[in-house]
Every structure is written in structure tokens, then in C-alpha cells.
Amino acid sequence: MPMTEQATGAHHPQPRARTGGPSTAAVEHLTGAQSLIRSLEEVGADTVFGLPGGCILPAYDPLMDSTRVRHILVRHEQGAGHAATGYAQATGKVGVCMVTSGPGATNLVTPIADAAMDSVPMVAITGQVASAAIGTDAFQEADICGITMPITKHNFLVTRAEDIAHTIAEAFHIASTGRPGPVLVDIAKDALQSKTTFSWPPVMDLPGYRPVTKPHAKQIREAAKLITQAKRPVLYVGGGVMKAGATAELKVLAELTGAPVTTTLMALGSFPDSHPLHVGMPGMHGAVTAVTALQKADLIVALGARFDDRVTGKLDSFAPYAKIVHADIDPAEIGKNRDADVPIVGDAREVIADLVQAVQAEHTEGHTGDYTAWWKDLNRWRETYPVGYDLPEDGSLSPQQVIQRIGELAPEGTIFAAGVGQHQMWASHFIQYEQPATWLNSGGAGTMGYAVPAAMGAKAGMPDRTVWAIDGDGCFQMTNQELTTCALNNIPIKVAIINNGALGMVRQWQTLFYNQRYSNTVLHSGADTEGNAAKGTRVPDFVKLSEAMGCYAIRCEDPADLDKVIAEANAINDRPVVVDFIVHEDAMVWPMVAAGTSNDEVMAARGVRPDFGDNEDD
Fold it and tell me: Looking at residue 404, what DSSP letter applies?
């Protein structure tokens, strides 16, 4: 993101450098590497996920002496990036990862892109070859600033030791203010080795970076009028509400207006799933009621959401009757996909708080919305088309049932991290999210391999909370080496492998759209000609693999053992636990809106298109 782009404030902004005059703090003489570690201490970074190598090595020497920064040695740099993201999403603080140059830095590209798509505050520190060698194709050189320019909120190349302290302060400030996002700091090896002076706080120089947080009062009043005039309003809540720490304000606004609330995949937990005003998650695999509410609405109040394609479906047929109030801290998002009748630029917490006051003023003047007929429709859809599943006829484990029982048996306040695919969608539907920051997933990028390292980061940041990773057997095989990191660093996460022997979501599309031609989606060897995984084939054997990495591992195949196995996993807290759940391979995610089609064509189940009645289209 460019420096001028505005964005959503983090839950708990990091201590940040002041922008005032010269520092009066005592001046110390340090190396650039020592300055880096001291700067991380001063901005409040308590955990760094990383992997050393030649160009970043000077920084690892003073890191060994730090009593304020814990370093967690990962097994792959991608794991460091996702762990920093999971840490940030669970704690609301800035996540930090540190790796070396070249391949070390390029292995961070995926988690950086992931953090950018989901507006996660993260600072990635990379080593770089010595400044004199930059541009010569030196050993382990990569232009990581150039590579990551499109996927970072901002990035820095530091070639002088004296620039390290203020750059770190600026990086944390940029990452955690406005719309949060990843910031990369690439530091040349000679800058780490050179001598410099250190004093804190440094003076930050960020011309042009002035995120707008306070919304315009006139726009707020216009939005409040539309809310009270509407007959079929919907509060469309995105991840920005979570990032802004605005969940309490959201509950007040929803209950004040009585409007239905739909929470996106990135916003689950920002409004209690059990609340009567909550109509579910919208989107390609959203609840029928949520998808249809947006389609039939005459007013959509979008709060920290971006009208992405997974929510809108075919854009030109999305919500054809609705006026749009769009509130976002990033003005680039407003009008990007859908024109806004009332655009509001501001931090979600301030926007919602001001909306509450403006709606109260409308009520005082006798203007209140009447949504009786709207709720009659919504409740009928909820009762007719609930999100559900059928148990397999052959008596095997249902993946939905496994995930639902994990959620029901989990301790209060458990944090759930999901990979990407069918298990992600089932976890979004069949676990109840009542609190913010209890659901972590890769929403915008859809990164396979996210769950295990993200769960590791969340547990490192919130050690007193239970953390379950809900993963697929495909995702698990991308980053499971971080279980070794968990075992050796006393990070006892729990991992549920929803093992259907296939790349499940891709297989579902092949079933529905490619005449059941299962090209390269079977993961176990020994598949038959129909593309079904051979019974009993375990390559790899996840139980043996997990045990080899220092975990307690169990396999569950019988529904009769399900609760016992989950209870056993919940009871073990001295090491990571992995449960290999062997589930039915043909289970599908429903509801579904096929890619490229209108949300009006939502399918409640295979072959089941909801009937809403012609009279509801007026």
C-alpha cells in the first residue's frame, strides 16, 4: 500500500516513537545490530519468529543477550511469517518475524501477501547483502523491497546504522495505525556491523502519512437518516471492525437499530453468533439467510468491509435494490467495487460510536425504522434453510460433526485457526464464535499451510488460552514442520487434521463442474480408477510423523470415539497434540454460490435452490 493510504487501527497500538523535537534520552554507542534489538525492545516487541542466516547473523548475537525479546526459531521462514500473523491476530499487537537475505526473504513473500490482504499489522525484518554489493547479484542477494512493494503497506531499505532505530519506530507506527498491514525493513549487513549512537525515542519523519480516523459529521447524519428510513437494512460487518476494537460499539448499534447483522469470514466473533440479530456469514459459502438478506436489502451499511468477490458474487447483480453506506478507514476501498451513496472515511470504532449518537438523535425526533416485515422474511429463511449437514450413510466420520464437537467441547475462550478449503468453511459455520479474536484464518489470500504456524503464533502470544488448529490433510503437509518448533519451545497447540485423503475443495469443484474427473486431487497413494483414496493407505502416516516431531498423536476413525478423543486432546497441555480424523471423502460445503454466478443462484444444498417467493422481489 502507498504511504498515503489510510487504514484501520490495531486493537492495542504498540508503544511508538514520538514525532517531536530532538530526544533528551542518554546517548549510547552501539553497533547497528545492537540498535536493532534495543529498538525492538523499546517498541514493545516481546516475541520474534525467525531463522538466522549470513546477512542477518550480526543481529542474532545481541538478540541472545536480550531479556525482553523472546526469539522462536522456526523450521521454515514461511512459518515465521504466518506465526507473526497469528500472534498479531490473537493479541492485537504487531507481529514480528526476522530472516536472512535472498531465499530467506523470498520465503516470507507468501505470509507478507497474506497479511496485506487481511490487513494484519506485521513487521518483517530481513538481512541484506552489504551495501556495496547491492545490485551485483551477490551471493544470497534478492531485491526484497522491489519484490514486496505491491504487497507491503510500506517498506524500507536501510544501509546506514544510524537509520535503524528511527526506521524500526516508523515501521511499527505504520504497521499498527490507519489500515494495519505488513511493513518490511531490509537492513544491509554492514549497517548491522557498523558503530552508531542510540537514543530513544527517535524522531520519526513520515511526510504524507496522516490516516483519517474521525469521520465527517455530515456523512454520519446522512447514514443515520438512511438507517431509520430503510425497510430492509443490513449491517455488513467486515474485519475492519475487529481490527479497530469496535465490537462493543457494534453490539450497541445493532441493538439500537434492530437491523440484521452479517459478519464476513474475517469478522467472525466481532458480533456473537448466538445473538438473535446475527443472520450468519455472507458469501460464496455463506448462510442462505445472510446471502439473501444482502440481495434483498434496500440499505447496506458496510463497516470495515470491502465488497470482495467472495461476498458479492457476480458484482453487477449484487444487492440490486440497495443503497450503500460504506465506512472504511482506507478511502481506496470506498467505491472500488461498489459505488457508495454515503461514503464515510474513518476508523470503525469512531464511525460506529458516532453512528450510535446520530441514530439516537433520529429516534429522539421520532424517526425510527420499522423492520417488522423484514424480520418476518429473515426468520422464515433462517428456519427453512439453516446451515446443516447429513451424516454419512456408511457410518464413517462426518467432517462437519468432528469440527462441531471440537467447538462444543473446547474450553471457554479457545482460539481457532484454520487452513484453507472445505475444513475452513466448515469451521466458520459449525463452531460458535462469541468473542472477538477467537477465529484466525487466511481470508483474502486463501493460503494453504496457514493454520499450524498461525496457531503457534497465537499460542505464543496468548499462552493461557487453548488454541486449536483446524487443518486439512493437504494444508497440513505444507507447514507441519512447525510442530517441531512448538514441541521444542513449549507451545502446546492442538491440531485437528480433517483427513479425507484429498484436496477437498478442489475435489468438490471437480465433482460439481468437471464431471467427477479427479485430476491430481487424491493425496494418498493407491487411488483407484474412480479417484477414491485406497482404504488403509497412510502416506504419510500423520500419527507417526507427529510423534517424530515431539507431539502426542491420536487417530480417530469411529464416530463412537469422537468425544473421548477430543476430551483426551483437550486434557494434554504439556506438548502439542495432533488428532488425525479420518473422515468421509465425499462431504461437501453447502450452501454455495458457484464462482462467477449471481448470489441469487445460491444453492442451499446439492440440487436444492431456495424458493423465496416472487412477492419478495418488490
Answer: H
Q: Cα 450 vs. chain centroid, distance in angstroms?
A: 10
- In what helix (H) or strand (E) does residue 474 lie, and over which residues does it extend? helix 473-479
Angle, alpha carbons 317-320-324 (nearest 5°): 115
Give the integer Cα–Cα distance in Å for 164 and 38.
10
Instruction: Name the residue among 27, 166, 168, 182 with its Cα closest to residue 95.
Output: 182
- Span 413-455, pLDDT tens digits: 999 999 999 999 999 999 999 999 999 999 999 999 999 999 9
**Alpha carbons 328 and 250: distance in angstroms, whole number:** 14
Respond yes or no: is residue 448 known to be catalytic.
no
**What length does the chain have?**
618
The pTM of this model reads 0.93
* Amino acid found at 573: N
* 49 has catalytic annotation: no
Q: Kindly indicate the confidence band of residue 530, based on its pLDDT and cuts at 50, 70 and 90.
A: low
Q: Is 456 a catalytic residue?
A: no
Which residue has 505444507 as its cell numbers?
478
Residue 140 annotated in active site: yes
Catalytic residue among 153, 189, 243, 296: 189
Q: Which of 3, 28, 139, 516 is an active site residue?
A: 139
Provide the pairing of β-strand 195-198 with 28-31. Answer: antiparallel
β-pairing verdict for 415-418 and 342-345:
unpaired
Q: How many CB atoms lie within 10 A of CB 386?
A: 12
Q: Is 376 a catalytic residue?
A: no
Place of cell 520519526: 204
